[in-house]
Amino acid sequence: MPLRDTLARVDADLAAGRVPVARQRLRGLVSSFPDDLVVRRRLAEVYRLYGDPAEAGRWMYLEEDREAAETSAFEARYPTAPQRMRALAWQGPESLAPTAFAREQLAAVRVACSDAMGRPVDWDAVPSAAEADGTGSTVTGFLAGAGCLVAVLAFLAIWVNGLVALFD
Protein backbone atom coordinates (compact mmCIF):
# COMPACT_ATOMS: atom_id res chain seq x y z
CA MET A 1 0.00 0.00 0.00
CA PRO A 2 1.45 3.42 -0.90
CA LEU A 3 2.70 5.69 1.86
CA ARG A 4 -0.02 8.30 1.34
CA ASP A 5 -2.81 5.68 1.58
CA THR A 6 -1.36 4.22 4.77
CA LEU A 7 -1.03 7.66 6.34
CA ALA A 8 -4.69 8.30 5.46
CA ARG A 9 -5.59 5.06 7.24
CA VAL A 10 -3.52 6.18 10.23
CA ASP A 11 -5.55 9.41 10.33
CA ALA A 12 -8.79 7.41 10.16
CA ASP A 13 -7.60 5.06 12.92
CA LEU A 14 -6.71 7.98 15.17
CA ALA A 15 -10.03 9.71 14.49
CA ALA A 16 -11.83 6.49 15.45
CA GLY A 17 -9.75 6.09 18.61
CA ARG A 18 -7.84 3.07 17.30
CA VAL A 19 -4.49 4.30 18.60
CA PRO A 20 -2.83 0.85 18.81
CA VAL A 21 -3.73 0.15 15.17
CA ALA A 22 -2.36 3.53 14.11
CA ARG A 23 0.85 2.81 16.03
CA GLN A 24 1.27 -0.55 14.30
CA ARG A 25 0.72 1.00 10.88
CA LEU A 26 3.30 3.69 11.61
CA ARG A 27 5.82 1.15 12.91
CA GLY A 28 5.43 -0.72 9.65
CA LEU A 29 5.93 2.49 7.70
CA VAL A 30 9.14 3.26 9.60
CA SER A 31 10.41 -0.19 8.62
CA SER A 32 9.52 0.42 4.99
CA PHE A 33 10.54 4.09 4.86
CA PRO A 34 13.28 4.54 7.50
CA ASP A 35 14.48 7.81 5.97
CA ASP A 36 11.04 9.48 6.04
CA LEU A 37 11.13 11.90 8.96
CA VAL A 38 7.42 12.68 8.61
CA VAL A 39 6.54 9.06 9.43
CA ARG A 40 8.91 9.14 12.42
CA ARG A 41 7.33 12.39 13.63
CA ARG A 42 3.83 10.89 13.31
CA LEU A 43 4.93 7.84 15.31
CA ALA A 44 6.32 10.15 18.01
CA GLU A 45 2.93 11.88 18.17
CA VAL A 46 1.21 8.53 18.75
CA TYR A 47 3.62 7.68 21.55
CA ARG A 48 2.80 11.03 23.14
CA LEU A 49 -0.83 9.88 23.20
CA TYR A 50 0.38 6.83 25.13
CA GLY A 51 2.31 9.08 27.53
CA ASP A 52 5.62 7.43 26.60
CA PRO A 53 8.23 10.21 26.33
CA ALA A 54 11.12 7.79 25.74
CA GLU A 55 9.51 6.36 22.61
CA ALA A 56 8.45 9.82 21.47
CA GLY A 57 12.06 10.91 21.92
CA ARG A 58 13.24 7.85 20.01
CA TRP A 59 11.22 8.74 16.95
CA MET A 60 11.98 12.49 17.18
CA TYR A 61 15.72 11.96 17.74
CA LEU A 62 16.58 13.03 14.20
CA GLU A 63 14.51 16.23 14.39
CA GLU A 64 16.02 19.56 15.35
CA ASP A 65 12.81 20.74 17.05
CA ARG A 66 12.64 17.73 19.38
CA GLU A 67 11.70 18.03 23.04
CA ALA A 68 14.69 17.95 25.40
CA ALA A 69 12.80 15.90 28.02
CA GLU A 70 11.82 13.28 25.44
CA THR A 71 15.37 13.09 24.14
CA SER A 72 16.66 12.61 27.69
CA ALA A 73 14.07 9.88 28.31
CA PHE A 74 15.11 8.12 25.09
CA GLU A 75 18.79 8.32 26.02
CA ALA A 76 18.03 6.99 29.51
CA ARG A 77 16.06 4.02 28.11
CA TYR A 78 18.78 3.27 25.56
CA PRO A 79 21.94 4.29 27.44
CA THR A 80 24.61 2.86 25.11
CA ALA A 81 25.41 3.84 21.55
CA PRO A 82 24.77 0.31 20.19
CA GLN A 83 21.35 0.30 21.87
CA ARG A 84 20.53 3.69 20.39
CA MET A 85 21.74 2.61 16.99
CA ARG A 86 19.39 -0.40 17.03
CA ALA A 87 16.51 1.66 18.46
CA LEU A 88 16.70 4.29 15.72
CA ALA A 89 16.00 1.60 13.09
CA TRP A 90 17.84 3.52 10.40
CA GLN A 91 18.84 1.75 7.20
CA GLY A 92 21.49 2.78 4.73
CA PRO A 93 24.07 5.55 4.93
CA GLU A 94 23.52 8.80 6.80
CA SER A 95 23.52 10.62 3.47
CA LEU A 96 19.95 9.37 2.93
CA ALA A 97 18.74 11.57 5.79
CA PRO A 98 16.80 14.53 4.42
CA THR A 99 18.25 17.15 6.80
CA ALA A 100 21.74 18.12 7.90
CA PHE A 101 20.70 17.77 11.55
CA ALA A 102 19.52 14.18 11.00
CA ARG A 103 22.74 13.32 9.15
CA GLU A 104 24.80 14.75 12.04
CA GLN A 105 22.77 12.83 14.65
CA LEU A 106 23.08 9.56 12.74
CA ALA A 107 26.81 10.04 12.22
CA ALA A 108 27.35 10.82 15.91
CA VAL A 109 25.49 7.67 17.00
CA ARG A 110 27.37 5.52 14.47
CA VAL A 111 30.77 6.89 15.51
CA ALA A 112 29.95 6.40 19.20
CA CYS A 113 28.84 2.83 18.45
CA SER A 114 32.04 2.16 16.50
CA ASP A 115 34.05 3.46 19.45
CA ALA A 116 32.10 1.28 21.88
CA MET A 117 32.49 -1.83 19.70
CA GLY A 118 36.17 -1.20 18.98
CA ARG A 119 35.61 -1.56 15.24
CA PRO A 120 33.82 0.31 12.47
CA VAL A 121 30.08 -0.31 12.24
CA ASP A 122 27.54 0.97 9.77
CA TRP A 123 23.78 1.23 9.58
CA ASP A 124 23.46 -1.88 7.43
CA ALA A 125 25.19 -4.07 10.04
CA VAL A 126 23.96 -2.78 13.39
CA PRO A 127 25.42 -4.88 16.23
CA SER A 128 22.99 -7.28 17.87
CA ALA A 129 22.18 -6.86 21.54
CA ALA A 130 24.32 -9.85 22.47
CA GLU A 131 27.22 -8.64 20.34
CA ALA A 132 27.03 -5.15 21.80
CA ASP A 133 26.96 -6.52 25.35
CA GLY A 134 29.87 -8.86 24.61
CA THR A 135 27.83 -11.91 25.61
CA GLY A 136 26.82 -13.15 22.20
CA SER A 137 29.40 -15.68 21.09
CA THR A 138 30.34 -17.10 24.52
CA VAL A 139 26.87 -17.58 25.97
CA THR A 140 25.29 -18.61 22.69
CA GLY A 141 28.08 -21.07 21.98
CA PHE A 142 27.86 -22.59 25.44
CA LEU A 143 24.08 -22.99 25.25
CA ALA A 144 24.25 -24.52 21.79
CA GLY A 145 26.94 -26.97 22.90
CA ALA A 146 25.03 -27.91 26.04
CA GLY A 147 21.85 -28.48 24.02
CA CYS A 148 23.66 -30.72 21.56
CA LEU A 149 25.24 -32.70 24.41
CA VAL A 150 21.84 -33.26 26.05
CA ALA A 151 20.36 -34.39 22.73
CA VAL A 152 23.21 -36.87 22.10
CA LEU A 153 23.00 -38.28 25.64
CA ALA A 154 19.23 -38.72 25.32
CA PHE A 155 19.66 -40.49 21.99
CA LEU A 156 22.34 -42.79 23.43
CA ALA A 157 20.18 -43.62 26.46
CA ILE A 158 17.26 -44.56 24.20
CA TRP A 159 19.53 -46.59 21.92
CA VAL A 160 21.18 -48.49 24.79
CA ASN A 161 17.79 -49.14 26.39
CA GLY A 162 16.56 -50.51 23.06
CA LEU A 163 19.56 -52.82 22.78
CA VAL A 164 19.08 -54.13 26.31
CA ALA A 165 15.39 -54.77 25.63
CA LEU A 166 16.24 -56.53 22.36
CA PHE A 167 18.60 -59.05 23.99
CA ASP A 168 16.55 -59.63 27.16
TrEMBL record:
> Which keywords does this Swiss-Prot/TrEMBL entry list?
Membrane, Transmembrane, Transmembrane helix
Where do the TM regions start and end?
142-167
Species in which this protein is naturally found: Streptomyces longwoodensis
The source's superkingdom equals Bacteria
Q: Which Pfam families match?
A: DUF6584
Read off the lineage from the record.
Bacteria, Bacillati, Actinomycetota, Actinomycetes, Kitasatosporales
Name of the protein in question? Uncharacterized protein
